[in-house]
Amino acid sequence: MRAHVRSLVDAAWFKRLIIILILLNGVTLGLETWPQVLAEHGRPLHALDRTLLWIFVAEIGLRLYAYRRDFFRDPWNLFDLVVIGIALLPATGPFSVLRVLRVLRLLRLLSAIPSLRMVVTGLFRALPGMASISLLLALLLYIAGVVATKLFQQSSPQYFGDLWTSLFTLFQIMTGDGWSTIALDVMDHQPYAWTFFIVYILVSTFIALNLFIAVAVEALEHGSERTHGEDGADREGPRPTEDPAEPAPARAADDAVLAELRALRGEVAELRRALPLRDEHG
């Protein structure tokens, strides 16, 4: 029975069905944000939402039954379990705000679609490198904040009046939000201030932020190569010399051939020893 359930939850058509139901659930949650649609079709939408939720609960139950302890060894299974568990929390009274968290069910697409799962796994694998770049960027922001406060504190106190104001302004410049307005305001008092802003933007935006992209892309490439390597190994299957399930008749035939080869080798060796004797007598 458990084997049949496992083959069911692992079937491709079953996984596609779950993906379709997740997308349908996302559509219903979106329709519930429209007051007019909710007023006219609120009850059917809520009924459909509850039905889809219990289908997802049943799916989790089938996977638990099929995999038992192995279910908890896969982090994606734990992710699905947490998402569905949040959806089952009461959404009335003081917990009414938890109704908003129902939209988290759409995140199950991350575990249901292999390509999305690979992207998320790659991003998690890139976190150590991103942490180092974040430290570098924070150091750069602090140094630039101290320099900008010393240089522009008197001319533009609204942007660089103190260290915290300068850090916020530089972060805003790093995101590209209104940096030209800030630079022009400072340049009205200090015409050569453009050099500071150009250097800061080049270093912070075009170098440091692009490092995040480079680290993420590298992690995704490594994850893709690893996935393709595993898929290729699965398609090739075990090699003949490593196949423990080789039929007994085939192994017996191989043993017989090896025995004949050994016998033939022995006969050849005897002939080689006999040839010198014939030459001596001749």
TrEMBL record:
Cellular component terms per the entry's GO annotation: voltage-gated sodium channel complex
Major location category of this protein: membrane
Comp. bias (Basic and acidic residues): 224-242
UniProt subcellular location: Membrane
Protein origin, superkingdom: Bacteria
Topology relative to the membrane: Multi-pass membrane protein
Segments forming domain Ion transport: 12-227
Ranges where the record places region Disordered: 224-252
InterPro entries: Ion_trans_dom (IPR005821), VGCC_Ca_Na (IPR043203), Volt_channel_dom_sf (IPR027359)
Membrane spanning residue stretches: 12-31, 51-66, 78-101, 126-147, 159-180, 192-217
GO molecular function: voltage-gated sodium channel activity
Keyword field contains Membrane: yes
Pfam families: Ion_trans
Record-linked PANTHER family: SODIUM CHANNEL PROTEIN 60E, VOLTAGE-GATED CATION CHANNEL CALCIUM AND SODIUM
The protein's name: Voltage-gated sodium channel
Organism of origin: Nocardiopsis composta
Taxonomic lineage from the root: Bacteria, Bacillati, Actinomycetota, Actinomycetes, Streptosporangiales
